[in-house]
Every structure is written in C-alpha cells, then in structure tokens.
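hey so i finally got around to running the thing on that chain from the lab meeting. sorry it took forever, my laptop kept dying and i had to restart like 3 times. anyway pasting the input first so we r on the same page abt which one it is
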Amino acid sequence: MGRYVIRRLLLMIPVLIGTTLVLYAAVYALPGDPVQALAGPNQLVPDAVRHAIEAKFHLDQPFLSQYWNYLVGLAHGDFGIDLHSTPVWEIIKASWPVTLKLAVTTWVIEAVLGVALGVLAALRAGKVTDFVVLAGTTASMGVPYFIVAFVVKLIFGIHLRWLPASGIENGWPASYLMPAFCLALMGLPSISRLTRVSILENLRADYVDTAVAKGLSRARIVLRHVLRNSLIPVVSMLGLTFGGLMGGTVLIEGIFNLPGLGDQVYQGIRQHNGPVVVGISTLLVLVFLLVNLLVDLLYGVLDPRIRLE
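ok and heres what got predicted. didnt touch it at all, straight out
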C-alpha cells in the first residue's frame, strides 16, 4: 500500500506539470493587455509605468521563462502574486471555504439522492417507480443547470423567500442549499443510473442465490452484500464528480453571488489577472488528483479482493 501511494504521488508530478503548462499557455494567449486592464480602460499608461509593471510581474519575459518562474515558486508553496500585489494564496484562503462548502453540500446531495434513486429504481425495475426515476433523471439532464438555477432562485428565493436568494449572510446550510441542489443536477442522473445498473447486475450474481438459499432476508441481502459490491463503480464516479465540482462552480457562484474560487477565476479572466486564474486552477488540479488517489484507496475498503500494487 505504501509503495503504491508513493508511486501515485510521483506520477502526479508530470501530470501537474503538463496541466499547469496548458493552463499557463491558455492564460498567456488570452487577448488583451493586463497592464491596461489594471489601469482602467480609459486611462493612459505612461511607458515608464508600463515597463515598471511588466518588469515587476515578469510580463516582459518570454513565455517559458515566466512559466519556469511560476514552477519554481510553486515548488516552494508560492502560488504567485496577482496584479494588485496580493499573494494568490491569500485570495485562495479567503475564497476556498465558500467553494468547499458548496462542493461538499452538492456532493452529499448527489451521493444520497443519486444512490437512493438508483436503489429504488433497481428494486422496482420495469415498474412505474423505475420509469418515473428514469424520466426525472432524463429531464434533469436535458435542462442546463444554470437555467434551473435562475428559475429556482426566482421562485424559492425571491417570490416565496424560503431560502436566501444570494450571498452567504445566512451561513451554511441555508445559503448553500439552493445552489448546491442546482449544481447537483449535473451529476445526480449519472450516479442514479450507474447505481441502478450495478445493483441489477449484482442481483443476478451467484452469491445472491446462495444468500437466498441460506434464508437471509431480501433487505439484508441488498444492504449488506449487493449494495456494498455495487458501490465500487459509484464511488469512482463520486470521486471524479467531487474533483469536478471544485472547479465547476463558476456560473452557480455568479448566479447566487457566492464569493468563492469560481467567482475569483471569473473576475481574474475579466481583469486579465493571469496569476489568480493560474494559481486557483493549479490548486483545483491538485485537489482533483488527490481525490482520485483517495478513491483508489477506498476500493480496497469496499472490496477486500482488490489489492493495490
């Protein structure tokens, strides 16, 4: 196990270098002038001031030199400094709790509702309940989640005032339930369908016939044996979903006025503030890689037959 974890951590290094290179290149290639964006659209920037700003933030250096400086800083735990001379890590520390709360709340909704609907549909396969779950998940996949977010905010936040329409003034969970539910629509249908298929497959396995022959109740067979084996592929998808949620909250945070990492990335793109975009994106890549590692380790817990080599 220890050697497997070390090997996986070492493999993360080239993956991280490759992804940050693509991110840095994308930000470097963005149209616009970051110095002019810093000064304002109608402000004349003197040449001396421009040269001083470009030298301070290494904007006058070739792309590879800028990227190398970023990697050296990242190796020392430095995510860079934004164009307002604020360390990117300070921006991350101020914003990540909002995104983490939103991602965790969304993930819990996806896991609980997705698995519950999948189990219900599998145990009622071919019946009305199964078709209702299938129709509901199909409908949620067909409507973009940000459109649902606008509608939900308008009805339950503005008209009915059941939950806060925007902001984080009311704290968790009140301010996060609506955006989390809307964001969960991206992954919930896949979780429920995968759970359904996996349970139906395991219900036809030989060990189920053996358990029935021993006189075990159906509930015990499903909960203690079938569900545990069926959750292995579901856990993998839930892990990937959580990694994606950390970076997929830009629109939701904007709609519900949540000052999280997604909102910082959006503002960074608008303001041509490349260090913020690259620094936060690098953190999200690291989270995604670590979550994948944890998912692989969970396989051995769910199924002792799996050995990590």
